[in-house]
Amino acid sequence: MRAFARMLRMVVFDSMAFFTYTGVMRQSLLFTKTRKEAPKDEVSRNAELLIRAGYIHKEMAGVYSYLPLGLRVLKKIEEIIRQEMNAIGGQELGLPALQEKGVWQKTDRWDDAKVDNWFKTKLKNDTELGLGFTHEEPITALMRDYVSSYRDLPFSVYQFQTKFRNELRAKSGIFRSREFLMKDLYSFSRTEDELNSFYESVIEAYRKIFARVGLGEKTFLTLASGGSFGTPFSKACLNPS
Questions:
Q1: What is the Cα–Cα distance from 129 to 126, expressed in whole angstroms?
Q2: What number is the average pLDDT over the span 138-154?
Q3: Average pLDDT estimate for 135-162
Q4: Which pTM was predicted?
Q5: Which residues make Cβ contacts (< 8 Å) with residue 60, sequence separation at least 6?
Q6: 3-state per-residue secondary structure call for 159-175
Q7: Does domain 4-238 have CATH number 3.30.930.10?
Q8: CB of 46 within 8 A of CB of 174?
Q9: Cα–Cα distance, 113 to 92 (Å, whole number)
């Protein structure tokens, strides 16, 4: 969700009021206030503007808290994405952030030389764990208990979940942070043709998402590196403005 910072500025609020889970609260009652200046150590323009407007609060480099206005926008974007994922048959679930070492060793992605942005920790019994930067391996391991035949396919699952990436330099505000909310979708298909067909439906779903937040005409599908995800190339939605 790298386009989130731009979406955050695009979603419109209702006049001078915003809604909470328990009712209506006026902006004049917000504990947050606008600021003339952003923190001196903030170098990202998107974060500077959002901090000054009272949408987010910087905790440390690459880590931000979402304040009431920012959280409201985040929830609106999340709901738009949820609706479009459900429309293509996605089933929402929630996976843990704590990752078992052995699951990732099987695909050779526990090695820091292969994936250099792990956050790793240990339990009190010295069992090593990781904080999830993605969930391909855990979701595949989970599905071994639920898929026993090709008749169980195809289907797709998705989640909104906090991810952790140990970025060497976190200087892009909420575009590229060390802790962030990500929607990740995983599909399970019987054939390559079935997979490709679903992939095209996902691309169309993303086009609808960007259109609904007012970025449709400014967003372009481009070829990108596959990075640590096991493929030479991937596709990314970019907004050049």
A1: 9
A2: 96
A3: 97
A4: 0.85
A5: none
A6: EEEEEECCCCCCCCHHH
A7: yes
A8: yes
A9: 32
Q: At what angle do helices 192-212 and 68-87 cross, to 10 degrees?
A: 140
**pLDDT surpassing 70 at residue 7:** no
Instruction: Report the distance separating Cα 100 and Cα 109, nearest Å.
Output: 12
The region of weakest confidence among 15-19, 120-124, 153-157, 235-239 is 15-19
Q: Provide the sign of the torsion angle of the four alpha carbons 36, 38, 43, 49, taken in this order.
A: negative
63, with CB counted inside 10 A (0-12, 13-18, 19+), is middle
pLDDT at 195 over 70: yes
Listed residue (177, 102, 93, 91) closest to 133, CA to CA: 177
Percentage helix, strand, coil, to 5, in the chain? Answer: 35, 25, 40
Q: Where are the domains of the chain?
A: 4-238
Which of 76 and 43 is assigned the larger pLDDT? Answer: 76
Long-range pairs for 139-146 at CB < 8 Å and ≥24 separation? 139/95, 139/186, 140/186, 141/103, 142/95, 143/188
Q: Please, are residues 134 and 234 in contact by the beta-carbon 8 Å criterion?
A: no
